[in-house]
């Protein structure tokens, strides 16, 4: 009973202090009252601490000399065990944030509270952080991105908050547009140095949505995006054929870069890496990754510059000769050949004077590099034989597939139960894969 009475008395005292401050014309004359409210944080009463969490932010701006003590008291409140106290303090933080000096520190503390397992507390943190961000975008976002950049244990929570709460409101938050888009771009560039593949895609998707990287942006802007992707692909490292993560990252980065290649950004560094690092080790690359690699090169070939085409074409012809045998065989990898022929077509179109020395196709451009005076007839004979053999192999495979489809349709029509149909479909699928 005595404890309850003491609690009630303490709460009543705080109400009186709050009323006195509210009614005072010159609040600065009542610094002692505000100090008493701050001191209540160190007391025993839970309800008094909860009330103090409301009163400290309310009169915070009236006592700048006590700002540091008040802020320290609020930080103590959010570390307390009682959920009601923490939530009240969290809700009061945006009022403290109206003083620019403390915004970064408050944003940092709120960011750490995103790990809360209590839904109501986490919701309060989201609302407080968004309120703070609307007041001061720069000083609110910098400490959050710092956690992502440093790889701290709360980085995943921070990224989820940015994805779900901040990024969707970019039109509202990033004003003036050009200045703030540049600001957040610089933050992201520092933060993506050590992120997962999905996180990198998230950040790159957001950057591509900004106006400074829009359709009317200068070519230099697109090249900036490519350089970010190049860094993620780790193109300065030695290729290690046993490092599957690096292979997958290279493939993923190439796919992300394709829309930017279409806008005029250079693919030179990616293609140089493919020619010098990947092609020499191509035989040792796992089969399931070879096709993905060839697909990325094929997809980028329409946007490859003539100079890069000239460098890449010999490697493409080298791989074509490997996967297009010089005589008719039972089986060839049609997927590989399709990718390589598609790539060959686009590259040869851009650098026609290289085809004579590579495969004997004489195309007159009027340049010495046509090498029209030299005899490459053996190259031509070899290459056309490979093309003919591939054509015949494809024709035979097509005939088998056509016959297989006819047999399949006949079997399905004659099947009497769904179980029989399912069995036919399963068996036929395996046959088709074997034929291809």
TrEMBL record:
One of its GO terms (molecular function) is mRNA binding. One of its GO terms (cellular component) is nucleus. The keyword Repressor does not apply. GO terms for biological process: regulation of programmed cell death. It holds the Pfam family API5. Keywords: Apoptosis. Belongs to the API5 family. This is Apoptosis inhibitor 5.
